[in-house]
Amino acid sequence: MKIIKSATLDSIEATIIDVEATFTKGMPSFTIVGMVSASINESKDRIKSSLLLNNFKFPPLKITINLSPSELNKKGSHFDLPIALQVALFDENKIEFDDFFFFGELALDGTIKDTSHIFAIVLSLAKKGELKRVVSSLESAKKLGNIPNIDIYVVNTLNSAIEFVKSKDKDNYLYKKEEIKYHVLTIKDEQYFYNKKYDEDFKDVIGQDMAKYAALICAAGNHNFLMEGSPGCGKSMIAKRLQYILAPMNLEEILEKAKLQALDLKDVDFSPIRAFRNPHHSSTKSSIFGGGSSNAKMGEVALSNHGVLFFDELPHFPSNILEALREPLEDNKILISRVNSKILYETKFIFVSAMNPCPCGNKLSSVKECRCSDFEVQRYKNRLSEPFLDRIDLYVVMNDSFSDNKNIVSSKELHESVIKAFIRQKNRGQKELNGKLNDKDIKKYCVLDSETSDILEKARVNYSLSFRSINKILKVARTIADINENEFITKGDLLKSLNFRKR
């Protein structure tokens, strides 16, 4: 029995599927078994049409296609190609498919098309080392070409796929890969990519020097960031410009971003610009964290991995969403449990948020009068619990005065500072940037002298700081020291860090 290899997505990871076929005597029929979805069942009509239009005559036999292992749910139209090859080559006994993996949806005329799942499947299998050679359409190959250590063979029609299988010189079908064309930074034999194109520039933000500096720290060290200010003072502008000045990305992060885009049914983008997700405060808990009644699906938290998750109008988000956010902010992962599935997502995102100082928004305004009572203001701010605020690294209060617009700084200047700080962190041997350091790494990299240690101890007593708060202060101070090109955290670095704590 000939076996053709393909694969399916099981949550966000791929599982290898063997496409088997038998041709037995009996009433002519065409059956696909193995817990298949509607999209796979529909493939029978696409395959019949493709084969008949290419002058293939169906044998008067009972055709049974099995997708093994049978206990696993399978979905996706990319099984069209391997199933069609099994039918088309049923009487070719000498043909071997070796370790080639076949993916592709068939048009009615036999043209092979790309699907949204192919990139995510191939990337998942390639990372596990289970796949080396892929056969797909040219459209798929353009995306797959960015995945290292795999060979891609291009077939654009069903006939060319049959010719490929029969061919002895398969290198004629080999796809020539293109290199990622962005600025490259090499640190300790690893390449990092970054872009110097700034679609939205920080020089458009008037005033708010303190907030810009906080944004620089946020980008340089991957710190969580909260801005408080009246409507129109520039909170959203700063947040939307952050993604263009973030730290460079390695190839693995770029591919992971592209995989999440594919799973979200978006156009795959291989640029080193990190993801930016900004759900509305009326979004449901499932859409933010992922879930569903049967199979757990990704939410905004998972889709923002290695990027930015922006919550505008933070207190207007339901309290159950804000409290549930505490785990992914602290542990950088989230487990979604359902009856039929349990999925662990990585959540190494930068959490950026913005809020008004009061319900009417005018408490910090220099021109408008606030209409809120002290009780209303307090109730508004009490929507954010202390444990939640404890996970915020940087807190900035912004005014609506634009008279301090003396220091106009561009995204290019800020990005250069971020890259310098990034290089310093990587040269120290850090696997994660300062904002995501664990307790062990904090002790190793966030070193204080005796004078600075005394200041931190006084701050702990005066402000009743928790252990988590102290760690946050140290991590921010480490980033400020990197921006200032200091080997150790100085007194000035620590004092600046303390300025960004919510008191």
Describe the structure.
- This protein is α/β, with parallel strands linked by helices.
- The chain folds into three domains: 3-173, 2-Layer Sandwich (Ribosomal Protein S5, domain 2); 187-427, Rossmann fold (3-Layer(aba) Sandwich); 437-503, Helicase, Ruva Protein, domain 3.
- 36% of the residues lie in helices and 18% in strands.
- The chain contains 20 helices and 19 strands.
- Strands 14-15-18-12-19 form a five-stranded parallel β-sheet. A four-stranded mixed β-sheet has the order 1-2-4-3.
- Strand 16 and strand 17 form a beta hairpin.
- Helix 7 (209-221) packs parallel to helix 16, helix 18 (450-463) runs parallel beside helix 20 (491-499) and helix 19 (467-483) crosses helix 20.
- It is elongated.
Radius of gyration: 27 Å
- Which CATH first-tier class of the largest domain would you pick? Alpha Beta
CATH topology of the largest domain: Rossmann fold
The overall pLDDT average reads 92
**Spatial separation of the terminal alpha carbons:** 71 Å
Helical fraction equals: 25-40%
Q: How many domains comprise the coordinates?
A: 3
Q: What class would the helix/strand composition place it in? A: alpha/beta
> What low-confidence regions span 5 or more consecutive residues with pLDDT below 50?
none
Spatial strand order of the main sheet: 14-15-18-12-19
CATH superfamily of the largest domain: P-loop containing nucleotide triphosphate hydrolases
Count of DSSP strands: 19
Question: Number of helical runs?
Answer: 20
* General form: elongated
Proportion of beta-strand residues: 15-25%
Largest sheet: 5 strands, parallel
CATH arch. level architecture of the largest domain: 3-Layer(aba) Sandwich
